[in-house]
Amino acid sequence: MKTLLLNPPSFEKFDGGAGARWPARREIASYWYPVWLAYPAGLIKESRLVDAPPHGISPEETIRIARDFEFLVLFTSKPGFAHDVSLAERIKEVNPSIKIAFVGPPVSIEPEKALKASEAIDFVARKEFDYTVTEFAQGKDLKDILGVSYRHDGVITHNPDRPPLEDLDSLPFITEIYRRDLDPTKYNIPFLKHPYISFYTSRGCPARCIYCLWPQTFTGHPWRVRSNENVVAEVKRTLEIFPEVKEIFFDDDTWAWGKARVIELCKHLKPLSFTWSCNSRVHADFEMLKAMKEAGCRLLVVGFESGSQDVLNNMKKGITIEQSLTFMKNCRELGLTVHGDFMIGLPGETRETILQTIELAERLDPETIQVSLAHPFPGTEFYRYLEANGYLTEDDMSDELGHQLPNYEYPWLSRQEIVDAVEYFYGRYYFRPRVIYRIVRKAIFDRDERARLYEEARDYLTLRARRKRFTGNVFEKAR
Fold first, then answer.
1. In a domain, 328, yes or no
2. Which CATH number belongs to the domain containing residue 88 in this structure?
3. Is residue 173 domain-resident?
4. 233 and 147 share one domain
5. Over the stretch 304-335, which tens digit does the pLDDT of each residue have?
């Protein structure tokens, strides 16, 4: 079947989920590659991948594109689901014969709810859907396909789960699909060089963080890896077909997990002499980090999350504050740049623990940071915790423009305080003289970076003003 793989338009500048683990409109416009849609796009002979948000493709243009296809695979997200259902219904109006499958975490966890939302959704492909949708596109009957939920004689039927894919080397190189269907200049992540390319070398994450969406709802915890030879082959091909790309980002949930695998893979990457970055945890020791640096690693994205050991324990992060401090010391010694992720609102959070987190961030002093509102996605342990304790306040996780808002609050910490704490965190961290100096120095010596920094600053200050109207500076006043 002629197949359209779609990361749909919804909110303006919304990174909707086909590659984003945290679907939302960002403080600064940022887009991850639609990795999950690219794999079946490479497996299905007659296919096209459309990543609407970064390419500025409107709902109307998307509907026009969909007229020419027999099968649509739409990657949905919790914040964007209502928009996606409306778009699917409009597509069905102009192309009644098209078959529409929804994929992604929310429909993997609540497939029956998704199918009841609209008759326009013909079936749901649960969890990893590479071969699920490929088999349907190749003509296989739904009743014979693992991992699907669908209607049969008016009754919703759930076929048995498809086992997680073990042979990752069997998948195509998705960078070939990027070259065919996407424009790399449309993808911007503030802490990565531009343009960049990203793909995975593994799937799954053995960590048990209670908030993390994908391991709990989509990919699972078992860690599965590609062979070193397979990774090297895709890196070589990427460097050949994208000579303009300045960096490859290995977007695995946690690239630096198994020490032996990291060191061995780095031996294979080192001769290629290219710049790359990845996600890491603070358990990566000096020997691992040294091997990564020598193989071309520039930057690590690291979840420090909290400055309170109690909150870290509550979220089952599996790290200590001392490990975070040692990790940063090692990174500085080796010349590795760090982008630090922090989170506000997890179990046990108070005004005092928020201040402890800000103080830890200042001690660690990573090059850049991201401060996120902890979001309780359905299917996660964090969601179940809030639900069991009566802390959920509503279903909506974003405002009318797609920006994150907490849909919960604690008796001792309001929604407004949680949001305002994020803004206070950013302001206190970035308006320090040493950080201002870093930013100004970068802008002076790099013309391209200067233009990007201007756009990012404008985006962030606009959102900051909106959030301040919502919060009324309640966290700062409560101090």
1. yes
2. 3.40.50.280
3. no
4. no
5. 999 999 999 999 999 999 999 999 999 999 99
Other CB atoms within 10 A of residue 285 CB: 14
- Whether residues 152 and 250 share a domain: the answer is no
pLDDT tier for residue 398 given thresholds of 50, 70 and 90: confident
Cβ count near 429 (within 10 Å): 19
Contact between 88 and 100 (Cβ < 8 Å):
yes
171 in a domain, yes or no?
no
Question: How many angstroms separate the Cα of 84 from the Cα of each of 63, 88, 103?
Answer: 12, 6, 11
pTM reported for the whole predicted model: 0.93
> Is 220 in the same domain as 116?
no
Q: Is it the case that residue 463 has pLDDT exceeding 70?
A: no
Residue 177 lies in a domain: no
Secondary structure in 3-state letters for the chain: CCEEEEECCCCCCEECCCCCCCCEECCCCCCCCCHHHHHHHHHCCCEEEEEHHHHCCCHHHHHHHHCCCCEEEEECCCCCHHHHHHHHHHHHHHCCCCEEEEECHHHHHCHHHHHHHCCCCCEEECCCCHHHHHHHHCCCCHHHCCCEEEEECCEEEECCCCCCCCCHHHCCCHHHHHHHHCCHHHCCCCCCCCCEEEECCEECCCCCCCCCHHHHHCCCCCCEECCHHHHHHHHHHHHHHCCCCCEEEECCCCCCCCHHHHHHHHHHHHHHCCCEEEEECCCCCHHHHHHHHHCCEEEEEEEEECCCHHHHHHCCCCCCHHHHHHHHHHHHHHCCEEEEEEEECCCCCCHHHHHHHHHHHHHHCCCEEEEEECCCCCCCHHHHHHHHHCCECCCCCECCCCEECCCECECCECHHHHHHHHHHHHHHHHCCHHHHHHHHHHHHHCHHHHHHHHHHHHHHHHHHHHHHHHHCCHHHHHC
Cα separation, 140 vs 200, whole angstroms: 28
Q: Give the pLDDT score at 34.
A: 97
| Residue 296 zone, left/alpha/beta (φ > 0; ψ -120 to 50; rest) | left
Residues in Cβ contact with 184 at an 8 Å cutoff, skipping those fewer than 6 apart: 178, 195, 196, 197, 242, 244, 245
User: Which token pair is 169?
Assistant: 């080397």
Give the chain's domain count.
Answer: 2
CB contact at 8 A, 264 and 232: no
Paired tokens of 422: 């994020």
Write out the residue range of the structural domain in which residue 139 sits.
Answer: 3-158
Task: Give the per-residue pLDDT at 26.
Answer: 75
